[in-house]
Amino acid sequence: NPSLGAALGLDEEVLADVLAAFEVREVPRQARLFEQGEPGRSLYLVREGSLKLTRTTASGRPSILAVLGPGDTVGEMSLLDGSARTATATALTPAVVLELSQARFDRWLADQPAAAPLLLRHLGRRLRASNDVIADLVFADVPTRVARLVLKLADQFGLEDERGVVMIEHQLTQEELAQLVGSARETVNKALASFAGRGWIELGRRSIAVLDGERLARFAR
Ligand code: CMP
């Protein structure tokens, strides 16, 4: 699977090695791969489908950290520092993940010269993304955050058709979209409806079509 190798920054040979150590696991829709607070004994690579990462806040309100799709890894943090899972991973669609046990992960890290730089790059990227999220929460208004989310989902899950329309089958409910933005459902819906009213997007059931990505991007800046 060359796209997987590219996603992980691995060449073919190293990838074959890594993949041999994984076990295939199927996760039915709505099932949890792991839960916040439990000890972590494996990391996972998403091969098919999508999952959401939820964190329950002190107030009991769930917040979604990220939506994961093919090529994404999840669960490495507990393996690295030995602490509990920092979030719950739930399948939004039937998903297939590749599971790597702690022992194999430790061995891979010790034996593969490419492993540590790869992992550091991955963690650095996530830290950058988290900093962007924090900055958005502090400085950007909800419509801007919604526009940025739509662009991010388009990047991650969008498929462009012959007319240049980018179709995003995000599989998220309105409530989950709001949890990703970090705002109330009504506020997020209002922003989406206003983008739709301007002809930039078209809203479907658990999907969004981006009709004018350029205007949306200009708004998001
Ligand atoms: P772990 O803490 O073992 O379990 C939850 C996982 O969610 C964590 O490892 C990371 O792999 C992943 N994770 C945590 N925070 C983020 C984030 N902001 N974006 C993407 N993935 C994350």
Automatic annotation (TrEMBL):
Domain HTH crp-type intervals: 140-214
Sequence intervals crossing the membrane: none
Keywords attached to this entry: DNA-binding, Transcription, Transcription regulation
InterPro entries for the chain: cNMP-bd_CS, cNMP-bd_dom, cNMP-bd_dom_sf, Env_Response_Regulators, HTH_CRP, RmlC-like_jellyroll, WH-like_DNA-bd_sf, WH_DNA-bd_sf
Name under which the protein is recorded: Crp/Fnr family transcriptional regulator
Organism of provenance: Nocardioides oceani
Domain Cyclic nucleotide-binding: 6-109
Superkingdom, taxonomy of origin: Bacteria
